[in-house]
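User: My advisor, Dr. K., asked me to get a structural model of this assembly before our group meeting. I'm new to this, so sorry if the format is off. These are the inputs:
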Amino acid sequence: MIFVTVGSMMAFDRLILSMDKWALEHADSDVLAQIGGGNYRPSHMRWTRMLPPSKFQEAVRNAAVMVAHAGMGSYFIAAEMRKPIVMLPRLAANREHTTDHQVHTIKWLRDRPGVYAAMSDDELEPAITRAMTGGSVASAEFARFAPEPLLRRVRQFLID
Amino acid sequence: MRRLQPAFDGLDVVFASVHSAYAEQVPGHRFYAVRDVTRWDRIGLAILVAQLTFILMRERPRVVVTTGSAPGMIALALAKCLLRSRTMWIDSVANCEEMSLSGKRARRFCDVWLTQWPHLRRTSGPDYWGAVL
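Assistant: The format is fine. Below is the predicted structure of the whole assembly, which you can bring to the meeting.
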């Protein structure tokens, strides 16, 4: 199964439209998409607006590959569940986000194991192919919580 | 925020999120859902301010911590102005080239103003204490 997600905040129809096309061209693949507040309703893949966290985790667990916007939440869950993740950044110019920080995010995440960057819609298809054959999953030894020194300093501030 | 959870162990913590479904991730804690807004949405903003004011006056937090974005910034500002709470902004690790817009605006309401990127640290702020990954 391929799990597609635009995260939990805003619509990202460009990703959903591209993935609906991908699903049409790969009719033997099972694709589930969380489309958020998007206007485009997919017709070639299963979709839902927003999954609660437990269902979301289940969808990631069942997925062979995750396809997502370049949001940190999506990366964290792929890394925790040890899945390969294809990421397409939202662009401010398209009003897909308020700034281009997802472009910045993908530039440093793309060198991490299991992260497959698609900088444009055209790069989605090859990135998915690489993710499915690459065998690499997002950080194999990914810790669930932030590093101890940061946790200690934050806690110190909380209890002071 | 989930990745900072051990720092909150044993403390009396109230969570607020723009997604009511996230309540299931913090069992045993009081939880409030608030309106999500961006800077494009003026009506939403008014609703959010009312919701946050209600929550703050009811809970009277000693400390407020947020990782953003716009709703977190507004919560921080209200907590500082209404209650003189101690406030901490942790800019998202996603912002690796500059502080977020909300982060820049949050600055004057913060006791601790953090970036998660060492190269963005400045002596005049933001400070850098590490990153969540």
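One thing worth pointing out at the meeting: Residues 42-59 of chain B form the longest helix (18 residues).

User: Perfect, thanks a lot.
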